[in-house]
Each structure stands twice: as structure tokens, then as C-alpha cells.
């Protein structure tokens, strides 16, 4: 179970697996946006294009039983943490076969079987909740680690601060993964944040803060694996800042002309699947391996889309259930 | 009215613009409110930072406590800050500043300071935003002495209420409904005011009073049409201000109709409708021909999937049925 | 009952102790709750960290969002955290965790997770703590589907409600009244439970029903004695759980007495009493001999100076007068 | 007006004035506790003994028109910022002649004539409010500075974090004065706080953080004066950490046996009026100067006590006023 503690070698298996996750994220996001564009679905969606490698590599440093708390912009994290495509697609489409019976929707994915415990739409609120998961593991003497995934903008909210301080004082087995994609809605990092690197804030909590290139799969994986190992060993939390990029508007359909053209272009290049493919293929992963992965993933997505589309929406009466343990009278 | 047509969003924008032009103490702060950040997620402050500068129209970090705290501090020394909290659920991370500070500083200081602060926020179910972006929390604020809370049902009122809220010497929370921004209606004259605390009669009638506000007004007017087809003349009262609400207007109407239905989007238990119902019964008990009815949303979190979200929201039919209940009861008793 | 006498504070302490002994998943977190920090400002957790260790009884930083967030996270994986928020007003900095998360995670996850969390908090006017340490905010939580909220009026109920809250699979907020800790009463047997959602008849009577909870129970019992002297037999209902409240018990009593007064310490407008009043009118309109009356505190912030604090709080006389109002009205009608 | 900008010399006048303030705080606290002990008053009171020099020296770096936001433990700040003794005593005693007509009480002192704008009982909440005062000054182009005074424990709450970030991004003319008295209620700094020095947190907000001995009048004054000058010059906020000490329990009457005896003893020595007197007398302040100050202050306090005791409490009907601009119906 503790493989990641002993070595964080970037093996060909790992490279393959990361490629699989990143490609799955990329194609899922693309397919989903296509369906929104052509009106097959109408859902508020926070695109993850540009952040595929970050999630794929970071989540690969976790065991399936490790916990994750993520955000509205969480499709990449959810897939990378192993939620089956069918269940996720069905939830995004508001169907009864979705992870949450269609009650939560894309902003509120939960799937305990693969450790995805909470997805929050309130900026920063998941960070203290991840502490609670880690605290429970600590009390129970379990060997689990909790990860809170959040954005650069979230590092300006009170919950971030309170949670990092508490985690440090209690040496909780938690990793704070800040996916710094340079924007908080339409606000640049500089316009809202008083540091140029979020990792600098770790010093204010007496914990290590590490920045890494979140678009480099090996660096992302190894940085995360080290933080996870540290947490698992009982040495406390780490603030990991992954430099990544949001290649779309904040929400699907939103204008993003405020992003300078050259900046966007450079990021598109750095975050591209082509570039990832190139890097992965340098890791004893053959062209035919990659082609096979792509074929499998494409098929998985088509199957999931078909599953979601043909599934039924929840029955209106379902509203009475899951408010409390006992259902509510009609 | 000016004879022109204006959207709800434009009316709010015009109110901010006119207020900033009239008074150098008026300023705006909130996430993405300046033009460099798009002029607000719902574009309500569009153009204003370009016109009045980013010192008076400030895009903030994602820090609701800091936003409202800064607004409170500026207000007690005579600025008139209009703080935008993007969605009403986000106020939950910063209730302290409104409830413990904005609402109480006039009182706790013995009248030495006051807090002429406006908080604009939006919310509402029906657009698929799910559990954490759709709640109607007006009842909380109405329960806090020192706060005022209002909501408009049409563009002219949106303009007039926002102007009055900015004028007001006390903290006012204005709720906008997320489904309303595109709604159009007659444009008010510049400088128009809708007094806080005064209800409007949106439609006259003598058989039953529908007391409502915000989105409920449009729905109640629809219900009133359906009722009219059956020969029931419903009077629709648009409270506009939820606290302090216009008891006299409501009592006068119900004294006439002897039947009342309260309509709001918030969930029923412990909602604002409970107070209105209790007060009507307290004051007009012996006049009433039937108990006051309440129409509200189903008491669950706001669900995501469409059929559930529809099951959550009250419907126009619910209003009609509730009106029937008051008239049936009257017949039976 | 065991025949022994116990204080309110001791009863809470015993409930925590017994729950921790029974279930290794029960844990406590809050400011100063461990023995090294005094066992809680009101000593409710005294001795427990020494007995169960500081891993299960954790003194926290001053970080209410982190406290409640950690409790939510632990609860969804089966711990049974009891979080102490020192005073109810401090919940205002962390409403988000309760309202957007604890209350909704069962629903939003489609039943995959649930939040067996207890929040203990204290509040109440009358001890000179002033505007930011005395508010009764139960109506807010009662308006949030997914939350439960309860309050005890005597030591045995305090024990029994806290045990039931810890057992419960959903989030429960328990309000303690700051004036109650020293109150003594019969000690319950270990393991005693007061079911959530069930009211108690604190005194039987047939002329008027006084519906109340928490501190209001003692005051209503006093008022009932005074009324008895005049030949009016008041029935006192202690709701114990405010949401979901025991409608059936209240309706049964009012169906008998045909008159009702609701008593609570929170300010009247949009308080919990409004819902209870509205529901009684809705259900028993034609049985009622008079409109339901409400007794509550004056709608201002809680003042500091004694004469003002007294003017703020309702009095036993107010309850008597309200009961008279229901009986007078009955005579007139 | 901008004297403090040009030089922060610790002149004899300043030394005298700081001594006066510190002595006034010390004797007021002592007298107030004595009256609580003997039952002449019954009020929740957060003692300031030990922190006299900190407030006296820090507030001396401000102009009367500069703004202050302080906390429940704010008697020292209020006096040092110039609130007349009579008005403060009357408010503490709940009288209609108090600063706030008896409506606020000790935890909620406001007195705009000397710049005391808000006193909050919610830990950390005053910090964002101080930003607002500074923001107004910035918008208006006024030369005023706002100070938020708060404790070490308050540095763990979300409002602290949000406020420091915002102030830094906007370069607000504000000074964050953390009076680190080593305890938050019964919790030691180490038990609740992940850094050993609160000033270390400044780096997370891209602002200077300075620690100083808050019991050394000159160091405290000069540290504060430099921060105030920086703010006034438009260079933005500073986090000033004053090492000070709480020589009493958290609240009057509370046990404080958890404080180690030697620690307390050493602090009593460092914070004593005797030691201050000694230091001040090295600054060309004569014995007779000091004796005269003491006499004046003693008389001022006796006068204030008499004023407070003979003043009437507010009329119950006063509750209707100051809820809104227009009074509420009875
Ligand atoms: C408390 C709160 N305030 C505001 C919002 C609105 N909002 C949603 S996403 C977002 C930007 C978040 O930026 P960041 O943390 O960088 O994450 P990203 O969206 O870039 O992944 C904002 C302001 C919110 N959801 N919650
Ligand atoms: C939000 C909030 N949580 C808890 C409290 C209770 N409380 C009052 S003072 C205090 C300790 C504050 O410590 P510190 O900030 O160091 O200030 P000090 O009292 O030492 O001056 C606490 C926990 C409060 N008033 N507000
Ligand atoms: Mg971002
Ligand atoms: Mg302290």
C-alpha cells in the first residue's frame, strides 16, 4: 500500500497511467463542451482544459483509499481519482444513474468508492473538510492521506488560512494542492493575490511549500508523491502549488477575451496533449501503447455518453429522500 | 416612467451610475466588478470603473469577509459602499460582518456611528446551479434587528429600491433574482426612488390577497389571471421591502379581502412567510374567512436535475390551489 | 431518573463522557475544550481529554470555519464529532460549513454520505455580555432543510438530547442557555435518551397552551403558576427540538385548549415563533378562540446596560398578559 | 500633522506622554478590578494588566484623527487613543453618560472624536473593518492611517488572512498591530498557532512583518511609528507584532493557574510600572515630572469613577433608539 513512500520513480507503467488519465480528461472535457455547444446538454460547466496533466499526475500519487476534496472545477480531479466515466457522465447529465442520483450535479460530485468525498461550489470550503478526513484517519491510526484540491483564488479566503494553520498544529496527514491556473474567474493572480507564488504562504503555517510545473507529469507526480509520503509518515501537511493553466473561460460559454492572446497561445502549447504524448513516449511507452490507450478511452467515453443519454432522470418524488436519514412526508 | 424600456440588469447599472454621479461617497466593491474583470459576473457594474475609476469601483480578492468588513469600515465614516456578493450562498462565509457589525454598530455605539451600506446579491433556483448557489436566505436577515432587506420584481423598482438603499442611513441588503436580469419593463426617470418599507399593489382585487415579493410577484400575477378566469379577483401585493415590511398595506388589503395567501421562493418552514402569516392572524383574526395559506418551495436543498428542481420550486398552480383553499374554507365555515 | 441531583453542566459532561465510552468514534473539538486548556470555558468537557486522550478531545485554534469543516469531514466518514462553538454569535463566521455542507451533503451526494455531527453552542441575554455574545439564532438553522436544532430546559433533557444528537445520523445543533449551567435537577440514568422531534408536556392544563423551549420553559412554568392563581389552567409544552418540531403534540394540545401563546427569547420578527403560530393557525383555524400570541424579546441588538437588557428580554408578566389576551379575545368573540 | 513621518525620535515629551498613558491604563485597570472584586460593579472585563506599555507606546505613534479598531481587551488601547476617562468609566459602568449611552458596554467602545471607531467582541472581525477605514481615507485622498489592534490568537482566524491580503493588494494605509500576549484564552501560542512569531505571516501577504518588544516603550513606539509612516506615505500596510504579556486570567475572575509561576513572575517584572518608570526617568523626565503625572492621573481616575457612579443608567425606553435612523415604535 505504501509504495509511494519508498520511491517516487516515474516508471513506464506510471507514465502510461498518467497519459491515460490526462487523455481521458482532455477528451471528456472536449466531448462535454461539444455537447453543450450543440445543445445536447445544458449545464453550468467549469472547463478543465489545460489542467489535465496536473490532475492526472497529482492524483497518481494517491492510493484509491486516499481521500480527495475538490471543487466545481473538478472533472479532471474526479476522473483522475478514478470515478467511472459512466457514473460521472450520468451525474453531469442529471440522471438517476449518476454518482449522486442527479441530486448533486457537476458541482457536487461525491463517490466514496474511489475516495472522492466532497466537491464544493463554495470557494475554499473544501480545505477544512479535507482536514476532517485527515483528522479521522489520524485518530483511527489509519494510513490514509487526504488531499484538498483548490485554485489560486481560493488561497485568499479565510477557510484556507484556518485550515492550513490547524493542519500544521495537528500535523494532519493532508496535502493542500493549489492548482494555480493564473485566474480566479476574470481576476488575474496579481490583481487579487498579494504573493506571486501561493507556495510562499506555507511559511506562515510552519509547513513546507513547494511550487512545481503542474504541466510536467514527472515533476507534478514527484512533488505530489513526496508530499503524500510526508503526510503518510506522520510528518504533517504540505502546501503544493502546481503551476497550470485554464485554457477556457471561467465557465463554459463565458467570454475570455481578457486573456492576452500570446499568453493563451503559449499556455496552449505547454499544456497540449501532443506535448504530453511526446514526453510520455520518451518513457518506454510505445506508440502502439499510446494508440491503444486512446482507443480504449475514446470507447469508454462513447459508452459513458450513451449510458448517460439513455438513463432516466430522477423521479420528482425522489426529492423527499436524502434530506434526513428518514424520508420526508410528501 | 420615462416611456422607454429597460432590462432589470440595465436598471441596476443605471441606479449605480446615477448614484455615483450624484455622490462622491458612493463606491462599489466585489469580485470582478471593475471593467478589467468584466464589470461584474452579471454585468451590473459594467462601465462604471471606466467612468469613475478603480479607486471607487474595486474588484476584490475572493474574500467575502474582507469585502463586507471593508464596506462596514468605510460606511461608518460616511462612504456609501455598495458591496456585491456574487451569489447569496456566499454570504454564509461572512455573516458576522453583517449581523454582528453592520446591523449593530449604530446601536452599540449609542448612535455615534451608523452603517449606510448596501449589499447586492443574487440567487434563485431554476437555472440548474444546484445546492450551493440557489438559496433564498432573506428570512435570516429579516430576523436581525438593524438590517433592512428588499427585493425588486421589475426593472423600475430595481432602480428605485437601489437608489433608496444607497440613500438610506442604515444597512440594506438587496436580493436580485438570477432569473430576472434579462426581464424588461418601463424605464424609470433618473432619480426615481421606491421608498423602503412601502409595498405596492401590483394588481387590485377584492376576493383574496396574494402577498409576495421578488420572483413571486410575476407568478402571483399569473395566478391572479387564472383566478380571474374563474371569477376570483385576487389582489397582488408586492412587498418590495421584506424587513421592515409594510404591515399596514397588507392589513388594509386583507381587511378588505378577508383571505390571504403568501408566496415566496424560499422553503416554507421558518421562512419569511411565517412572520407575515402570524401577523395577519394576530391582527385580523376575526376578519379572516379562512386561515392564511403559504406557498413556498419544498423543504430540501436545491436539487440539480431538472425534474427535481421543478419539484422543489412552487408553481403558479400551487398559488391558484392555495387561493382556492382560502375560498373553499370560507364557503365551508 | 436516578434519584440523584445533577447540574445542567454536569449532565452535558456526563452525556459526552458516556457517549465517548460507548463509541470510539465520538470525539470533541473546540476552543479550550481539553483539560490543559480548562476543559471548556463552561467546563462541559472537563476531564474528558484526560480520560480519552487529546486525540479525541482536541483544543483548537480560534478558527470556527476550520473547526466545523474538520467536524464535517470527519463525520462523513463515520466519526461522530461534537464541535463546541463557544458562543452562538461566533457561528456567524462559519455558517457556510453548516448550511452549505453539513446540511446538504447527504442530499447532494444522493445519500452516499451523511453528516452525523453535533454542534454544541451557548448563548442568551441577561448576563451583561452585550450585543455580540447573546443572540438566539435558532430560527436561521430551523430554516435550513437538512439541519436539526434542539435545546434543553433541564439537566435530564440536556443529557438525553445530547445523547440522541450524537446517535443521530444527521447534523444536530444544540443550543445551551448561558444562564442554565448551574441549574440543578433530577439526574437521568446513564444511557437515557430524549428522542429528537418529540415535545414534552411540562405542565398540563386545559385553558391555554404555552408553547416554548429552552429558557422559556422555566418562565412559562412560572407564568402558569401565576395563571393558576387566577383559575386559568395553562398547559406548557417544551418543544425540546425546534426543527423538526413536534407539530402533533402542539396541535393536540391547542385542539384541547383552543388558545395558544408561543414564548421564546429570540426577537419576535421572523423568529421561530412565527412558524409555530402560522402552523397552528393553518391547522386549527376554526378551533381557535383567539389568535395565537407571541412573547419574545424586543427587536433590538442585545443592550449592555442592565435596565436596557431587562427591557430587551421578555418577562414572565409578558407571558401572563399574552395568555390573558387569548382568553379576553375568546370572551369578546 | 505628519510629524511622525519625518522622525521617530523618542523625545522627553514623548516619554512623558507614554508614561502618562501607561500609568493611566495600569491604574484604571487596577481600580476597575478592585471595584469588581468588592462588588461595586459587576461587568465582564478583560484585564489589560501587562499590556500597558504596548498600547501607550503604540498609540503614541498615531495622530488623533487616525483610526483605531480594537477588541474586547481594549481598555488600554481606548485610553491610549485618548478617550476621556469619564466617558469610558461611565460606559464600563453601563451609564447613559458613557461613550455609547451604556448600550455597547466595555466590549463595544466607540468614540469617533479620538478615532476609536469600533471595538469588537468577535475575534479578528475588526481587522477587515480597519481596512475599510483605510480604504475610505485612500479614496478621499486623506492623510489618515487606520490601525487594527488584535491578539495573537486572532491571527488564526479567516478574517485576519482576508484582510491582510486585501490591504496588501490595495496598498491600504493600515497597520496591523498584533499584541502577542502569548495566550488566547487558555491556549498557549504553541498550542494553537503554527508559527512562533506572528510577524512571519506577513511574508504570505507580501508585506513587511516586524516583531518588537512591546514592553520596551521606545522600541514599540519606533516600530509602530515606522509602520504608520509607511502607511501614510502610501507604501501600504505593515504587520507589527508586539511581544507583550497578559498578567491576568483571560477574563476577570477566571482561573489562570495554567500559567507557569516562573513565566508569570518574569513577565510581571518585565511589564512592571516600576521598570517603565525607571526607563522613562532615563529620558530627561524628572522624578517630580513623574510624580506630578501620577498625581494628575490618580485624580483623573477618581473623578471618572465618581462621575460614573453618580451617573444614571439609561432609561429603559432608550432601547427604541439607534436601531435604525428613525426610532422604533414602543
Ligand atoms: C465563497 C465564494 N465566493 C465566490 C465564489 C464565486 N466563484 C466561483 S469560482 C471563483 C474563482 C475561483 O478561482 P480559483 O480559486 O483560482 O479557482 P479556478 O476557478 O481558477 O479553478 C469564484 C470567485 C464562490 N463560489 N464562493
Ligand atoms: C470568532 C470568535 N471565536 C471565539 C471567541 C471567544 N474568544 C474571545 S477572546 C478569545 C481569545 C483571543 O485571543 P487573542 O486573539 O490572543 O487575544 P487576547 O484575548 O489574548 O487579547 C476567544 C477564543 C470570540 N470572541 N470570537
Ligand atoms: Mg484559478
Ligand atoms: Mg492573546
From TrEMBL, chains A, D:
<keyword id="KW-0560">Oxidoreductase</keyword>
<dbReference type="InterPro" id="IPR050642">
    <property type="entry name" value="PDH_E1_Alpha_Subunit"/>
</dbReference>
<protein>
    <submittedName>
        <fullName>Pyruvate dehydrogenase</fullName>
    </submittedName>
</protein>
<keyword id="KW-0670">Pyruvate</keyword>
<feature type="region of interest" description="Disordered">
    <location>
        <begin position="311"/>
        <end position="330"/>
    </location>
</feature>
<dbReference type="InterPro" id="IPR029061">
    <property type="entry name" value="THDP-binding"/>
</dbReference>
<dbReference type="Pfam" id="PF00676">
    <property type="entry name" value="E1_dh"/>
</dbReference>
<dbReference type="GO" id="GO:0006086">
    <property type="term" value="P:pyruvate decarboxylation to acetyl-CoA"/>
</dbReference>
<dbReference type="GO" id="GO:0004739">
    <property type="term" value="F:pyruvate dehydrogenase (acetyl-transferring) activity"/>
</dbReference>
<comment type="function">
    <text>The pyruvate dehydrogenase complex catalyzes the overall conversion of pyruvate to acetyl-CoA and CO(2). It contains multiple copies of three enzymatic components: pyruvate dehydrogenase (E1), dihydrolipoamide acetyltransferase (E2) and lipoamide dehydrogenase (E3).</text>
</comment>
<keyword id="KW-0786">Thiamine pyrophosphate</keyword>
<dbReference type="InterPro" id="IPR001017">
    <property type="entry name" value="DH_E1"/>
</dbReference>
<feature type="domain" description="Dehydrogenase E1 component">
    <location>
        <begin position="24"/>
        <end position="315"/>
    </location>
</feature>
Automatic annotation (TrEMBL), chains B, C:
<keyword id="KW-0560">Oxidoreductase</keyword>
<dbReference type="InterPro" id="IPR029061">
    <property type="entry name" value="THDP-binding"/>
</dbReference>
<dbReference type="Pfam" id="PF02779">
    <property type="entry name" value="Transket_pyr"/>
</dbReference>
<protein>
    <submittedName>
        <fullName>Alpha-ketoacid dehydrogenase subunit beta</fullName>
    </submittedName>
</protein>
<dbReference type="Pfam" id="PF02780">
    <property type="entry name" value="Transketolase_C"/>
</dbReference>
<dbReference type="InterPro" id="IPR005475">
    <property type="entry name" value="Transketolase-like_Pyr-bd"/>
</dbReference>
<keyword id="KW-0786">Thiamine pyrophosphate</keyword>
<dbReference type="GO" id="GO:0016491">
    <property type="term" value="F:oxidoreductase activity"/>
</dbReference>
<feature type="domain" description="Transketolase-like pyrimidine-binding">
    <location>
        <begin position="6"/>
        <end position="183"/>
    </location>
</feature>
<dbReference type="InterPro" id="IPR033248">
    <property type="entry name" value="Transketolase_C"/>
</dbReference>
<dbReference type="InterPro" id="IPR009014">
    <property type="entry name" value="Transketo_C/PFOR_II"/>
</dbReference>
